[in-house]
Specification:
Blueprint: H1 2-49, H2 53-62, H3 68-73, H4 83-88, H5 96-105, H6 116-128, H7 134-139, H8 145-157, H9 165-179
Protein backbone atom coordinates (compact mmCIF):
# COMPACT_ATOMS: atom_id res chain seq x y z
CA UNK A 1 0.00 0.00 0.00
CA UNK A 2 2.92 2.23 0.45
CA UNK A 3 3.37 2.50 -3.33
CA UNK A 4 -0.34 3.33 -3.76
CA UNK A 5 -0.01 6.12 -1.20
CA UNK A 6 3.01 7.47 -3.09
CA UNK A 7 1.20 7.29 -6.44
CA UNK A 8 -1.82 8.95 -4.90
CA UNK A 9 0.41 11.66 -3.38
CA UNK A 10 2.16 12.19 -6.74
CA UNK A 11 -1.19 12.53 -8.49
CA UNK A 12 -2.37 14.98 -5.87
CA UNK A 13 0.80 17.06 -6.23
CA UNK A 14 0.46 16.89 -10.01
CA UNK A 15 -3.15 18.09 -9.77
CA UNK A 16 -2.14 20.90 -7.41
CA UNK A 17 0.72 21.89 -9.75
CA UNK A 18 -1.59 21.76 -12.80
CA UNK A 19 -4.18 23.88 -11.00
CA UNK A 20 -1.50 26.34 -9.89
CA UNK A 21 -0.19 26.60 -13.46
CA UNK A 22 -3.73 27.08 -14.80
CA UNK A 23 -4.34 29.92 -12.33
CA UNK A 24 -0.94 31.48 -13.18
CA UNK A 25 -1.67 31.31 -16.93
CA UNK A 26 -5.13 32.78 -16.35
CA UNK A 27 -3.65 35.66 -14.35
CA UNK A 28 -1.00 36.25 -17.04
CA UNK A 29 -3.67 36.28 -19.76
CA UNK A 30 -5.70 38.84 -17.80
CA UNK A 31 -2.56 40.93 -17.18
CA UNK A 32 -1.55 40.83 -20.88
CA UNK A 33 -5.10 41.69 -21.94
CA UNK A 34 -5.03 44.69 -19.62
CA UNK A 35 -1.70 45.82 -21.10
CA UNK A 36 -3.00 45.43 -24.67
CA UNK A 37 -6.21 47.35 -23.90
CA UNK A 38 -4.17 50.21 -22.41
CA UNK A 39 -1.77 50.15 -25.35
CA UNK A 40 -4.69 50.33 -27.79
CA UNK A 41 -6.08 53.36 -25.91
CA UNK A 42 -2.66 55.03 -26.03
CA UNK A 43 -2.33 54.37 -29.76
CA UNK A 44 -5.81 55.77 -30.41
CA UNK A 45 -4.91 58.94 -28.50
CA UNK A 46 -1.63 59.21 -30.41
CA UNK A 47 -3.51 59.50 -33.68
CA UNK A 48 -5.02 62.74 -32.40
CA UNK A 49 -1.54 64.13 -31.71
CA UNK A 50 0.36 62.92 -34.78
CA UNK A 51 0.85 65.25 -37.71
CA UNK A 52 -0.41 64.20 -41.11
CA UNK A 53 1.60 64.66 -44.28
CA UNK A 54 -0.71 67.58 -45.08
CA UNK A 55 0.15 69.17 -41.72
CA UNK A 56 3.86 68.74 -42.46
CA UNK A 57 3.40 70.21 -45.93
CA UNK A 58 1.70 73.26 -44.47
CA UNK A 59 4.50 73.58 -41.93
CA UNK A 60 7.23 73.21 -44.56
CA UNK A 61 5.59 75.88 -46.70
CA UNK A 62 5.67 78.35 -43.82
CA UNK A 63 9.14 77.57 -42.47
CA UNK A 64 12.42 78.82 -43.74
CA UNK A 65 13.13 81.59 -46.18
CA UNK A 66 10.63 82.31 -48.91
CA UNK A 67 13.25 81.49 -51.52
CA UNK A 68 15.87 78.98 -50.30
CA UNK A 69 17.99 79.31 -53.44
CA UNK A 70 18.32 83.07 -53.05
CA UNK A 71 19.08 82.61 -49.34
CA UNK A 72 21.85 80.17 -50.28
CA UNK A 73 23.32 82.67 -52.72
CA UNK A 74 23.15 85.55 -50.24
CA UNK A 75 26.55 87.18 -49.92
CA UNK A 76 28.10 85.24 -52.79
CA UNK A 77 26.15 86.02 -55.95
CA UNK A 78 23.58 88.54 -54.71
CA UNK A 79 26.09 91.30 -54.25
CA UNK A 80 26.22 91.65 -58.04
CA UNK A 81 23.10 89.82 -59.29
CA UNK A 82 19.39 90.10 -58.54
CA UNK A 83 16.71 87.44 -58.65
CA UNK A 84 15.63 88.86 -61.99
CA UNK A 85 19.13 88.28 -63.36
CA UNK A 86 18.87 84.63 -62.40
CA UNK A 87 15.36 84.36 -63.84
CA UNK A 88 16.52 85.77 -67.16
CA UNK A 89 19.26 83.13 -67.32
CA UNK A 90 16.76 80.23 -67.27
CA UNK A 91 17.57 79.02 -70.74
CA UNK A 92 21.29 79.64 -70.51
CA UNK A 93 23.41 77.39 -72.64
CA UNK A 94 26.44 77.40 -70.35
CA UNK A 95 26.71 74.59 -67.79
CA UNK A 96 26.11 75.75 -64.21
CA UNK A 97 29.47 74.34 -63.10
CA UNK A 98 31.31 76.26 -65.83
CA UNK A 99 29.32 79.44 -65.13
CA UNK A 100 29.99 79.41 -61.37
CA UNK A 101 33.66 78.57 -61.94
CA UNK A 102 33.97 81.49 -64.36
CA UNK A 103 32.17 83.86 -61.96
CA UNK A 104 34.42 82.78 -59.05
CA UNK A 105 37.48 83.81 -61.06
CA UNK A 106 36.21 87.33 -61.76
CA UNK A 107 37.80 90.09 -59.78
CA UNK A 108 35.44 91.24 -57.08
CA UNK A 109 33.88 87.81 -56.65
CA UNK A 110 32.85 87.35 -53.04
CA UNK A 111 33.12 83.60 -52.73
CA UNK A 112 35.85 81.03 -52.64
CA UNK A 113 36.19 77.61 -54.17
CA UNK A 114 34.67 75.94 -51.09
CA UNK A 115 31.39 77.79 -51.78
CA UNK A 116 31.18 76.74 -55.43
CA UNK A 117 29.20 73.50 -54.86
CA UNK A 118 26.53 75.34 -52.83
CA UNK A 119 26.24 78.08 -55.46
CA UNK A 120 25.98 75.48 -58.23
CA UNK A 121 23.29 73.60 -56.31
CA UNK A 122 21.29 76.77 -55.59
CA UNK A 123 21.45 77.93 -59.22
CA UNK A 124 20.43 74.49 -60.43
CA UNK A 125 17.57 74.44 -57.90
CA UNK A 126 16.37 77.70 -59.42
CA UNK A 127 15.59 75.81 -62.63
CA UNK A 128 12.75 74.17 -60.72
CA UNK A 129 11.24 77.51 -59.72
CA UNK A 130 10.56 78.42 -63.32
CA UNK A 131 7.74 75.87 -63.43
CA UNK A 132 6.96 75.31 -59.74
CA UNK A 133 6.03 77.69 -56.94
CA UNK A 134 8.28 78.00 -53.90
CA UNK A 135 5.53 76.40 -51.82
CA UNK A 136 5.48 73.37 -54.12
CA UNK A 137 9.25 73.11 -53.96
CA UNK A 138 9.23 73.28 -50.17
CA UNK A 139 6.80 70.35 -50.11
CA UNK A 140 9.66 68.17 -51.32
CA UNK A 141 11.35 68.81 -47.98
CA UNK A 142 8.94 66.48 -46.15
CA UNK A 143 9.54 63.56 -48.49
CA UNK A 144 12.03 60.84 -47.74
CA UNK A 145 15.29 61.07 -49.71
CA UNK A 146 14.14 58.18 -51.93
CA UNK A 147 10.75 59.84 -52.60
CA UNK A 148 12.43 63.18 -53.28
CA UNK A 149 14.89 61.54 -55.71
CA UNK A 150 11.98 59.87 -57.50
CA UNK A 151 10.20 63.21 -57.94
CA UNK A 152 13.37 64.97 -59.13
CA UNK A 153 14.27 62.27 -61.66
CA UNK A 154 10.63 62.18 -62.80
CA UNK A 155 10.82 65.91 -63.54
CA UNK A 156 14.16 65.38 -65.30
CA UNK A 157 12.53 62.88 -67.68
CA UNK A 158 9.61 65.14 -68.63
CA UNK A 159 9.56 66.49 -72.15
CA UNK A 160 11.14 69.94 -72.36
CA UNK A 161 13.01 69.56 -69.09
CA UNK A 162 16.44 71.19 -68.93
CA UNK A 163 17.50 69.13 -65.91
CA UNK A 164 20.44 66.81 -66.51
CA UNK A 165 21.46 63.86 -64.35
CA UNK A 166 24.11 66.09 -62.74
CA UNK A 167 21.47 68.79 -62.16
CA UNK A 168 19.22 66.21 -60.49
CA UNK A 169 22.06 65.24 -58.16
CA UNK A 170 22.72 68.90 -57.34
CA UNK A 171 19.03 69.52 -56.58
CA UNK A 172 18.94 66.44 -54.32
CA UNK A 173 22.10 67.58 -52.55
CA UNK A 174 20.74 71.13 -52.22
CA UNK A 175 17.92 69.79 -50.07
CA UNK A 176 20.37 67.89 -47.91
CA UNK A 177 22.71 70.84 -47.59
CA UNK A 178 20.18 73.62 -47.15
CA UNK A 179 17.76 71.88 -44.80
CA UNK A 180 20.35 69.69 -43.11
CA UNK A 181 18.99 66.38 -44.41
CA UNK A 182 21.98 64.70 -45.94
CA UNK A 183 21.55 61.80 -48.31
CA UNK A 184 23.67 58.67 -48.10
Amino acid sequence: MDSNDRASGSRTRLKIFANFMSVAVFILVIFMTSILVNLQKDVNHLRDDLATKEDLTNLAVNLGPSDPAMAALEGTCTDCHTKETFAAAHNMTEDVHDLVGRMAQLSGAHFGTEEIPRAEAALTFMKCSHCHSQDRLKELAILSPAERWEVITGMMKKEGSTITQEDARRIRDFYGDFWGWHTP
